[in-house]
Write a structure and sequence with these properties.
By secondary structure, the protein is mostly helical. The protein has one domain. 59% of the residues lie in helices and 0% in strands. It contains five helices and no strands. Helix 2 packs antiparallel against helix 4 and helix 4 packs antiparallel against helix 5. 21% of the residues are buried.
């Protein structure tokens, strides 16, 4: 799988971080379901989250900054959405 992220990958998430990311994905899946009548928003959220499952177990190059940017782009496009960047930053504080 190709990635647009040119930075070296970060170390894989810890077990605690993986559990928190799974909870974040669960919230996102529910959000996609609840907003299924808003196709563009649901597609944008799916796009922002789709690399996480593989990244959780080392099957995809993991970049905290790349994932943070994807979630921030989603939030910028849909400012009334849930605050996924904030939830992500609780798992990976800025600077990590």
């Amino acid at each position: 799988m190709a990635t647009t992220n040119a930075s070296p990958p970060d170390p894989p998430p810890t077990e605690t971080q993986r559990i928190a990311l799974c909870k974040l994905m669960s919230i996102a899946f529910c959000d996609i379901r609840n907003n299924s009548n808003n196709g563009p928003q649901s597609r944008a959220l799916a796009d922002a989250m789709h690399n996480l499952p593989l990244a959780l177990h080392g099957g995809y190059p993991w970049s905290i900054a790349f994932q943070r940017d994807a979630l921030q782009r989603f939030k910028s496009e849909y400012p009334d959405s849930l605050d996924y960047p904030k939830m992500f930053n609780e798992i990976f504080p800025l600077g990590s």
